[in-house]
Amino acid sequence: MPIYKDEDFLDSPQNLFAVVQDLLLSTMKYIFFIALSVVAAGAHICSPNACKYFECLPVENCVDGEIGKGFCGCCDICIKHLKEGDPCFLGDMFGSLVTSKCGLNLVCSRRSRTCIKPLNCTQLKSETEGKNLLGAFIPRCETDGTFSAVQCHGSVCYCAHTDGTRIPGFQSAIHNIQGMNCNCARHKFAYGKTGLIGKLFHCESNGNYNKIQCTGSACYCVDEVGKLVGESVHVSQRKSMTC
C-alpha cells in the first residue's frame, strides 16, 4: 500500500484523486489475495466436524465404477470408470470432487485429454506416477516394459498377465504378499488362452503353485515355477507326500 510523506503533494485535487485511486487499487488487490487464499485453503481442508453437516445416501447402483469418498471424505459416492476414448481430467482443481476416472489399465492422456491404453507398463506408470492422486493405480513393471505378475491397488494385490490383464480368482491382502509370485496363475491363464484342454493346474489362492501337482494317476512335487522335483507317486499315496 503506498505511503505519501509530502503533505503539500495532497493539496492538489488531482494529486488527491491519484492517491485515493492508488489506495483503492491496493486494497482491492489485498482483498482479492485474501479471498483466493481462503477459497484454496477451504477446498483442501475440511473441518473435523464437517461430516455432521452432510446427510449421506446409500450408493445403490455402481456397476460401471467403484465406491469412493465424496467431499471431505464424508459420504460414499460412485466413481464411474471411463472407457477408452472417453473425455477425462488429469487431476482435480482445488480439491474438487472426482466422480469419474479412467478404467483399469487406462490413463488420461495429457495431449488428447481422453482415456487411452498405454503402449506398455512403463508408459502407464509414467502417466500416473507423481500426480499424487488419492487411490490412483500405479503399476509394477518389469525392465522390458511388461507388467509384473503381482499388481497392487489399494489394500489388495492380485495376479496379472504380462499385458496387465487381471487374472480372476487369485489375490491376497497387501500385508500378506511375501513370497507371492503368481506363477501358477499365469501358466494356467496362458494355457487357457491356447484353447487346449487336459492339463490341470493346482494353484494356491495367491496364484502360487501348490507344492503337490497331479496329472492323471500320478502325483509329484514341484518348485515355485511348476517344475518337477523328485519322483512321481501314485495318486493313492498323495496324502503321504512331503514336498
Protein architecture, described:
The protein is of the alpha+beta class and 243 residues long. Among the domains are: 62-116, Lipase, subunit A (Ribbon), CATH 2.10.80; 121-210, Thyroglobulin type-1 (Invariant Chain, Chain I, Irregular). The protein is 21% helix and 21% strand. The strands form 4 sheets. A 3-stranded mixed β-sheet has the order 1-2-3, with no helix packed on it. β4 and β5 form a beta hairpin. The radius of gyration is 30 Å and the shape is elongated.
Task: Reconstruct the topology from this structure.
Blueprint: H1 13-44, E1 65-69, E2 76-82, E3 100-102, E4 107-108, E5 115-116, H2 121-128, E6 150-153, E7 156-160, E8 166-173, H3 183-194, E9 212-215, E10 218-222, E11 228-234
The biggest sheet, with number of strands, parallel, antiparallel or mixed sense and barrel status, is: 3 strands, mixed
Regions with pLDDT < 50 over 5+ consecutive residues? 1-6, 32-44
Q: SS-based structural class?
A: alpha+beta
Amino- and carboxy-terminal Cα gap: 82 Å
Shape: elongated
Helix proportion:
10-25%
Could you tell me the strand content as a percent range?
A: 15-25%
Instruction: Please state how the strands of the largest beta sheet are arranged side by side.
Output: 1-2-3
* Mean pLDDT across every amino acid position: 80
Instruction: Identify the CATH homologous superfamily of the domain at 121-210.
Output: Thyroglobulin type-1
Radius of gyration from the alpha-carbon trace, in angstroms: 30 Å
What is the annotated CATH architecture of the domain at 121-210? Irregular
Number of helices: 3
CATH level-3 fold name of the domain at 121-210: Invariant Chain, Chain I
